[in-house]
Amino acid sequence: MIQHHHIGEEPISLDASALGDYWPGIQLYYPPVKYAPSLGIYEDMDQASARMKKHAHFTNAHTLIFDLEDGCRQKEMSRELLRKELPQLRKINERVTIAIRANSFRTDEYEEDMKLVRDMGEYIDVVMLAKAGEAYGAAEVRDLSSFLISINPNITIQPIIEHPKSLKIAPELMQYNTVKHVVFGIHDFSKAMGIHITPENWIEELFYFINQLLFEARIAGKGVIGGVETLIGSNIMPEKFLEPHDVRRWLDLHGDNESRIVYKHACKEAAMGLTGKQVIHPGHIHLCKTAYTPSPTEIAQKVNILKAAIEADALLGGAIKFEGEMLDPPMFGKALQTLLRAHALRALKTSDMEFALHVLQLLPAQVVRQNWPYGVLL
After folding, report:
1. CA distance 298 to 161
2. What's the CA angle centered on 296, arms 58 and 294, to 5 degrees?
3. 195: number of CA atoms within 13 Å, CB side?
4. CA separation for the pair 375, 16 (Å, rounded)
5. What is the dihedral of CA 123, 129, 130, 136, to 10 degrees?
6. Span 173-217, pLDDT tens digits
7. How far apart are alpha carbons 370 and 148 in whole angstroms?
Protein backbone atom coordinates (compact mmCIF):
# COMPACT_ATOMS: atom_id res chain seq x y z
CA MET A 1 0.00 0.00 0.00
CA ILE A 2 1.31 3.43 -0.88
CA GLN A 3 1.51 5.72 2.11
CA HIS A 4 0.30 9.26 1.60
CA HIS A 5 1.66 12.11 3.63
CA HIS A 6 -0.44 14.18 5.96
CA ILE A 7 0.00 17.73 7.20
CA GLY A 8 3.34 18.09 8.94
CA GLU A 9 4.82 14.95 7.38
CA GLU A 10 7.48 14.90 4.71
CA PRO A 11 6.11 13.93 1.27
CA ILE A 12 6.92 10.33 0.45
CA SER A 13 8.55 9.97 -2.94
CA LEU A 14 6.75 7.82 -5.49
CA ASP A 15 8.06 6.57 -8.77
CA ALA A 16 6.27 5.47 -11.92
CA SER A 17 6.65 1.76 -11.07
CA ALA A 18 3.92 2.23 -8.45
CA LEU A 19 1.44 2.70 -11.32
CA GLY A 20 1.89 -0.82 -12.65
CA ASP A 21 3.22 -2.06 -15.97
CA TYR A 22 2.88 -0.36 -19.30
CA TRP A 23 -0.31 -1.27 -21.13
CA PRO A 24 -0.49 -3.65 -24.11
CA GLY A 25 -1.41 -0.67 -26.31
CA ILE A 26 -1.57 -1.28 -30.05
CA GLN A 27 -0.81 -4.94 -30.68
CA LEU A 28 0.22 -5.99 -34.19
CA TYR A 29 -0.49 -9.54 -35.31
CA TYR A 30 2.71 -10.74 -36.90
CA PRO A 31 2.59 -14.08 -38.76
CA PRO A 32 5.97 -15.78 -38.19
CA VAL A 33 5.80 -17.76 -41.46
CA LYS A 34 3.51 -16.17 -44.01
CA TYR A 35 1.65 -17.37 -47.09
CA ALA A 36 2.68 -15.43 -50.21
CA PRO A 37 -0.42 -15.12 -52.44
CA SER A 38 1.64 -13.87 -55.39
CA LEU A 39 3.74 -17.05 -55.34
CA GLY A 40 1.01 -19.41 -54.13
CA ILE A 41 3.37 -20.89 -51.51
CA TYR A 42 4.54 -20.31 -47.94
CA GLU A 43 7.80 -18.51 -47.20
CA ASP A 44 10.89 -20.55 -46.51
CA MET A 45 12.97 -19.91 -43.38
CA ASP A 46 15.30 -17.40 -45.04
CA GLN A 47 12.41 -15.35 -46.50
CA ALA A 48 10.58 -15.31 -43.14
CA SER A 49 13.78 -14.28 -41.38
CA ALA A 50 14.43 -11.46 -43.86
CA ARG A 51 10.86 -10.18 -43.48
CA MET A 52 11.23 -10.15 -39.69
CA LYS A 53 14.45 -8.14 -39.91
CA LYS A 54 12.79 -5.66 -42.27
CA HIS A 55 9.50 -5.16 -40.41
CA ALA A 56 9.41 -6.61 -36.87
CA HIS A 57 12.74 -5.12 -35.77
CA PHE A 58 11.55 -1.56 -36.38
CA THR A 59 7.83 -1.74 -35.67
CA ASN A 60 6.18 1.22 -33.96
CA ALA A 61 3.53 -1.04 -32.37
CA HIS A 62 3.54 -1.33 -28.57
CA THR A 63 3.26 -5.15 -28.82
CA LEU A 64 4.12 -7.76 -31.45
CA ILE A 65 1.85 -10.82 -31.35
CA PHE A 66 3.44 -13.91 -32.85
CA ASP A 67 0.39 -15.97 -33.65
CA LEU A 68 0.85 -19.74 -33.38
CA GLU A 69 -2.88 -20.45 -33.27
CA ASP A 70 -5.67 -19.74 -35.79
CA GLY A 71 -3.63 -17.46 -38.03
CA CYS A 72 -0.76 -19.94 -38.34
CA ARG A 73 -0.59 -22.90 -40.73
CA GLN A 74 3.14 -23.68 -40.55
CA LYS A 75 3.28 -24.05 -36.77
CA GLU A 76 6.44 -26.12 -36.41
CA MET A 77 8.40 -23.93 -38.81
CA SER A 78 7.07 -20.79 -37.09
CA ARG A 79 8.33 -22.00 -33.71
CA GLU A 80 11.71 -22.79 -35.25
CA LEU A 81 11.85 -19.26 -36.71
CA LEU A 82 11.06 -17.70 -33.32
CA ARG A 83 13.79 -19.71 -31.60
CA LYS A 84 16.22 -18.29 -34.10
CA GLU A 85 14.95 -14.69 -34.24
CA LEU A 86 13.62 -13.68 -30.79
CA PRO A 87 17.04 -13.07 -29.15
CA GLN A 88 18.03 -10.65 -31.91
CA LEU A 89 14.63 -8.94 -31.91
CA ARG A 90 14.85 -8.32 -28.16
CA LYS A 91 18.35 -6.90 -28.57
CA ILE A 92 17.41 -4.49 -31.37
CA ASN A 93 13.95 -3.36 -30.17
CA GLU A 94 13.96 -3.28 -26.37
CA ARG A 95 10.75 -1.24 -26.12
CA VAL A 96 8.42 -3.59 -27.96
CA THR A 97 6.45 -6.15 -25.93
CA ILE A 98 6.79 -9.68 -27.30
CA ALA A 99 3.65 -11.80 -27.07
CA ILE A 100 3.15 -15.42 -28.10
CA ARG A 101 -0.41 -16.42 -28.98
CA ALA A 102 -0.51 -20.03 -27.87
CA ASN A 103 -2.93 -22.74 -28.95
CA SER A 104 -5.82 -23.99 -26.81
CA PHE A 105 -4.87 -25.41 -23.42
CA ARG A 106 -3.42 -28.93 -23.32
CA THR A 107 -3.74 -29.59 -27.07
CA ASP A 108 -0.72 -31.15 -28.77
CA GLU A 109 0.16 -27.80 -30.35
CA TYR A 110 -0.14 -26.08 -26.95
CA GLU A 111 2.43 -28.48 -25.50
CA GLU A 112 4.81 -27.61 -28.35
CA ASP A 113 4.17 -23.91 -27.75
CA MET A 114 5.09 -24.35 -24.08
CA LYS A 115 8.41 -25.97 -25.06
CA LEU A 116 9.13 -22.82 -27.08
CA VAL A 117 8.16 -20.61 -24.11
CA ARG A 118 10.33 -22.69 -21.77
CA ASP A 119 13.36 -22.39 -24.08
CA MET A 120 12.83 -18.72 -25.03
CA GLY A 121 11.41 -17.49 -21.71
CA GLU A 122 13.87 -14.64 -21.29
CA TYR A 123 12.74 -13.09 -24.60
CA ILE A 124 8.96 -13.38 -24.07
CA ASP A 125 6.80 -10.90 -22.15
CA VAL A 126 3.28 -12.26 -22.65
CA VAL A 127 1.56 -15.57 -23.37
CA MET A 128 -1.86 -15.09 -24.90
CA LEU A 129 -4.05 -18.11 -24.21
CA ALA A 130 -6.49 -18.83 -27.02
CA LYS A 131 -10.01 -20.00 -26.12
CA ALA A 132 -9.20 -19.49 -22.43
CA GLY A 133 -11.26 -21.50 -19.98
CA GLU A 134 -13.42 -23.24 -22.60
CA ALA A 135 -12.17 -26.77 -21.89
CA TYR A 136 -11.03 -26.81 -18.25
CA GLY A 137 -12.22 -23.49 -16.79
CA ALA A 138 -10.02 -21.17 -14.75
CA ALA A 139 -7.68 -24.07 -13.95
CA GLU A 140 -6.09 -23.42 -17.36
CA VAL A 141 -4.80 -20.03 -16.22
CA ARG A 142 -3.77 -21.42 -12.83
CA ASP A 143 -1.76 -24.21 -14.49
CA LEU A 144 -0.14 -21.88 -17.03
CA SER A 145 0.68 -19.39 -14.26
CA SER A 146 2.56 -21.95 -12.19
CA PHE A 147 4.40 -23.15 -15.32
CA LEU A 148 5.51 -19.60 -16.22
CA ILE A 149 6.67 -18.71 -12.70
CA SER A 150 9.29 -21.46 -12.92
CA ILE A 151 10.53 -20.07 -16.27
CA ASN A 152 10.29 -16.30 -15.97
CA PRO A 153 8.12 -14.74 -13.22
CA ASN A 154 7.78 -11.54 -15.29
CA ILE A 155 5.81 -13.21 -18.09
CA THR A 156 2.13 -12.28 -17.93
CA ILE A 157 -0.91 -14.07 -19.35
CA GLN A 158 -3.58 -12.52 -21.53
CA PRO A 159 -6.56 -14.91 -21.64
CA ILE A 160 -8.58 -14.52 -24.84
CA ILE A 161 -12.33 -14.52 -24.16
CA GLU A 162 -13.75 -16.23 -27.25
CA HIS A 163 -16.85 -17.99 -25.94
CA PRO A 164 -19.81 -17.21 -23.62
CA LYS A 165 -18.44 -19.91 -21.26
CA SER A 166 -15.26 -17.85 -20.89
CA LEU A 167 -17.18 -14.62 -20.36
CA LYS A 168 -19.23 -16.31 -17.64
CA ILE A 169 -16.07 -17.28 -15.70
CA ALA A 170 -14.18 -14.05 -16.54
CA PRO A 171 -13.86 -13.06 -12.83
CA GLU A 172 -12.21 -16.43 -12.12
CA LEU A 173 -9.84 -16.09 -15.08
CA MET A 174 -8.85 -12.64 -13.82
CA GLN A 175 -8.16 -13.63 -10.21
CA TYR A 176 -4.51 -14.54 -10.91
CA ASN A 177 -1.67 -12.01 -10.54
CA THR A 178 -0.21 -13.18 -13.84
CA VAL A 179 -3.27 -11.77 -15.63
CA LYS A 180 -3.10 -7.98 -16.09
CA HIS A 181 -5.29 -7.69 -19.21
CA VAL A 182 -7.79 -9.90 -21.04
CA VAL A 183 -8.56 -9.95 -24.77
CA PHE A 184 -12.06 -9.85 -26.23
CA GLY A 185 -11.90 -12.24 -29.19
CA ILE A 186 -14.80 -10.77 -31.12
CA HIS A 187 -14.84 -13.11 -34.13
CA ASP A 188 -14.84 -16.43 -32.27
CA PHE A 189 -17.16 -15.01 -29.63
CA SER A 190 -19.75 -13.86 -32.16
CA LYS A 191 -19.47 -17.22 -33.96
CA ALA A 192 -20.15 -19.08 -30.69
CA MET A 193 -23.15 -16.85 -29.99
CA GLY A 194 -24.49 -17.16 -33.53
CA ILE A 195 -24.37 -13.37 -33.91
CA HIS A 196 -23.63 -12.02 -37.37
CA ILE A 197 -21.21 -9.13 -36.94
CA THR A 198 -20.08 -6.70 -39.62
CA PRO A 199 -16.66 -5.04 -40.01
CA GLU A 200 -18.36 -1.63 -39.82
CA ASN A 201 -20.66 -2.10 -36.80
CA TRP A 202 -19.26 -4.90 -34.65
CA ILE A 203 -18.94 -2.66 -31.56
CA GLU A 204 -22.70 -1.97 -31.56
CA GLU A 205 -23.47 -5.60 -32.40
CA LEU A 206 -21.42 -6.89 -29.42
CA PHE A 207 -21.90 -3.87 -27.16
CA TYR A 208 -23.71 -5.75 -24.40
CA PHE A 209 -20.94 -8.34 -24.06
CA ILE A 210 -18.08 -5.81 -24.26
CA ASN A 211 -19.68 -3.90 -21.39
CA GLN A 212 -20.11 -7.10 -19.40
CA LEU A 213 -16.40 -7.89 -19.75
CA LEU A 214 -15.38 -4.29 -18.98
CA PHE A 215 -17.53 -4.33 -15.85
CA GLU A 216 -15.92 -7.52 -14.49
CA ALA A 217 -12.42 -6.37 -15.45
CA ARG A 218 -12.83 -3.02 -13.71
CA ILE A 219 -13.87 -4.74 -10.48
CA ALA A 220 -10.83 -7.02 -10.74
CA GLY A 221 -8.50 -4.10 -11.55
CA LYS A 222 -7.60 -5.56 -14.95
CA GLY A 223 -7.53 -4.09 -18.46
CA VAL A 224 -9.41 -5.18 -21.57
CA ILE A 225 -7.89 -5.35 -25.05
CA GLY A 226 -10.29 -4.46 -27.85
CA GLY A 227 -11.33 -6.25 -31.01
CA VAL A 228 -9.19 -6.94 -34.04
CA GLU A 229 -10.33 -5.15 -37.20
CA THR A 230 -10.54 -7.11 -40.45
CA LEU A 231 -10.71 -4.07 -42.74
CA ILE A 232 -7.46 -3.33 -44.57
CA GLY A 233 -7.13 0.01 -46.34
CA SER A 234 -4.47 1.16 -48.78
CA ASN A 235 -3.46 4.54 -47.33
CA ILE A 236 -1.14 4.87 -44.34
CA MET A 237 -1.25 7.99 -42.16
CA PRO A 238 2.16 9.63 -41.54
CA GLU A 239 3.42 9.45 -37.96
CA LYS A 240 3.80 13.23 -37.66
CA PHE A 241 0.03 13.56 -37.10
CA LEU A 242 -0.73 13.44 -33.35
CA GLU A 243 -3.58 15.86 -32.68
CA PRO A 244 -7.18 14.74 -33.33
CA HIS A 245 -7.86 17.63 -35.74
CA ASP A 246 -4.75 16.70 -37.78
CA VAL A 247 -5.89 13.07 -37.91
CA ARG A 248 -9.41 14.04 -38.98
CA ARG A 249 -8.03 16.36 -41.68
CA TRP A 250 -5.82 13.58 -43.03
CA LEU A 251 -8.75 11.14 -43.00
CA ASP A 252 -10.93 13.69 -44.86
CA LEU A 253 -8.29 14.44 -47.49
CA HIS A 254 -6.35 11.19 -47.89
CA GLY A 255 -7.97 8.44 -45.82
CA ASP A 256 -9.95 5.60 -47.33
CA ASN A 257 -13.23 4.31 -45.93
CA GLU A 258 -11.50 1.44 -44.10
CA SER A 259 -9.18 3.83 -42.23
CA ARG A 260 -12.11 6.02 -41.18
CA ILE A 261 -14.00 3.04 -39.76
CA VAL A 262 -10.96 1.65 -37.91
CA TYR A 263 -10.19 5.08 -36.41
CA LYS A 264 -13.80 5.56 -35.32
CA HIS A 265 -13.79 2.15 -33.62
CA ALA A 266 -10.47 2.84 -31.89
CA CYS A 267 -11.77 6.20 -30.58
CA LYS A 268 -14.89 4.48 -29.25
CA GLU A 269 -12.83 1.76 -27.51
CA ALA A 270 -10.48 4.32 -25.97
CA ALA A 271 -13.47 6.28 -24.65
CA MET A 272 -14.76 3.04 -23.07
CA GLY A 273 -11.45 2.70 -21.20
CA LEU A 274 -9.93 -0.24 -23.07
CA THR A 275 -6.19 -0.72 -22.54
CA GLY A 276 -5.19 -2.10 -25.93
CA LYS A 277 -6.27 -2.92 -29.45
CA GLN A 278 -5.18 -5.56 -31.92
CA VAL A 279 -4.48 -4.75 -35.56
CA ILE A 280 -3.54 -6.94 -38.52
CA HIS A 281 -2.10 -4.25 -40.78
CA PRO A 282 0.96 -2.07 -40.00
CA GLY A 283 -0.87 0.90 -41.55
CA HIS A 284 -3.34 0.82 -38.66
CA ILE A 285 -0.72 1.08 -35.89
CA HIS A 286 -0.27 4.86 -35.81
CA LEU A 287 -3.94 5.50 -36.64
CA CYS A 288 -5.06 3.48 -33.59
CA LYS A 289 -2.24 4.87 -31.44
CA THR A 290 -3.55 8.41 -31.95
CA ALA A 291 -7.06 7.25 -31.01
CA TYR A 292 -5.90 5.47 -27.85
CA THR A 293 -3.24 7.91 -26.67
CA PRO A 294 -4.09 11.34 -25.22
CA SER A 295 -2.73 14.05 -27.53
CA PRO A 296 -0.14 16.63 -26.38
CA THR A 297 -2.86 19.33 -26.33
CA GLU A 298 -5.18 17.16 -24.22
CA ILE A 299 -2.36 16.37 -21.77
CA ALA A 300 -1.51 20.07 -21.41
CA GLN A 301 -5.18 20.89 -20.73
CA LYS A 302 -5.49 18.18 -18.03
CA VAL A 303 -2.29 19.41 -16.34
CA ASN A 304 -3.77 22.92 -16.24
CA ILE A 305 -7.03 21.61 -14.75
CA LEU A 306 -5.16 19.81 -11.97
CA LYS A 307 -2.93 22.82 -11.29
CA ALA A 308 -6.02 25.02 -10.98
CA ALA A 309 -7.64 22.49 -8.60
CA ILE A 310 -4.53 22.38 -6.39
CA GLU A 311 -4.28 26.17 -6.37
CA ALA A 312 -7.91 26.46 -5.26
CA ASP A 313 -7.41 23.65 -2.70
CA ALA A 314 -10.34 21.87 -4.35
CA LEU A 315 -8.66 18.53 -5.19
CA LEU A 316 -10.48 16.64 -2.43
CA GLY A 317 -13.58 18.80 -2.24
CA GLY A 318 -14.80 21.95 -3.92
CA ALA A 319 -15.47 23.16 -7.42
CA ILE A 320 -13.69 25.47 -9.84
CA LYS A 321 -14.62 27.19 -13.06
CA PHE A 322 -12.27 26.21 -15.88
CA GLU A 323 -12.66 27.38 -19.49
CA GLY A 324 -16.37 28.01 -19.02
CA GLU A 325 -17.08 24.71 -17.28
CA MET A 326 -17.72 23.86 -13.62
CA LEU A 327 -15.36 21.10 -12.46
CA ASP A 328 -15.26 19.13 -9.19
CA PRO A 329 -13.24 16.17 -7.76
CA PRO A 330 -14.63 13.48 -10.15
CA MET A 331 -13.53 15.66 -13.09
CA PHE A 332 -10.11 16.14 -11.47
CA GLY A 333 -9.87 12.35 -11.19
CA LYS A 334 -10.62 12.02 -14.90
CA ALA A 335 -7.94 14.59 -15.70
CA LEU A 336 -5.46 12.57 -13.63
CA GLN A 337 -6.58 9.37 -15.41
CA THR A 338 -5.73 10.99 -18.75
CA LEU A 339 -2.15 11.62 -17.61
CA LEU A 340 -1.80 8.10 -16.22
CA ARG A 341 -3.26 6.63 -19.43
CA ALA A 342 -0.69 8.55 -21.47
CA HIS A 343 2.05 7.19 -19.21
CA ALA A 344 0.73 3.63 -19.55
CA LEU A 345 0.97 4.02 -23.34
CA ARG A 346 4.54 5.42 -23.11
CA ALA A 347 3.49 8.90 -24.23
CA LEU A 348 3.98 11.10 -21.16
CA LYS A 349 7.06 13.28 -20.89
CA THR A 350 9.07 13.21 -17.67
CA SER A 351 7.96 16.60 -16.33
CA ASP A 352 4.27 15.68 -16.73
CA MET A 353 4.92 12.30 -15.11
CA GLU A 354 6.52 13.99 -12.12
CA PHE A 355 3.52 16.29 -11.83
CA ALA A 356 1.10 13.32 -11.98
CA LEU A 357 3.04 11.61 -9.16
CA HIS A 358 2.87 14.85 -7.16
CA VAL A 359 -0.94 14.88 -7.57
CA LEU A 360 -1.11 11.23 -6.46
CA GLN A 361 0.77 12.12 -3.29
CA LEU A 362 -1.90 14.67 -2.42
CA LEU A 363 -4.67 12.06 -2.60
CA PRO A 364 -5.72 9.44 -0.03
CA ALA A 365 -4.97 5.84 -1.00
CA GLN A 366 -8.67 5.06 -1.47
CA VAL A 367 -9.08 7.89 -3.99
CA VAL A 368 -5.97 6.72 -5.85
CA ARG A 369 -7.47 3.23 -6.12
CA GLN A 370 -10.75 4.67 -7.41
CA ASN A 371 -8.91 6.51 -10.16
CA TRP A 372 -6.28 3.92 -11.07
CA PRO A 373 -6.94 0.23 -10.38
CA TYR A 374 -3.92 -1.02 -12.37
CA GLY A 375 -1.11 -0.15 -9.97
CA VAL A 376 0.98 -2.86 -8.40
CA LEU A 377 1.20 -1.21 -4.98
CA LEU A 378 -2.22 0.37 -4.71
Report:
1. 32
2. 75
3. 21
4. 9
5. 150
6. 999 999 999 999 999 999 999 999 999 999 999 999 999 999 999
7. 31
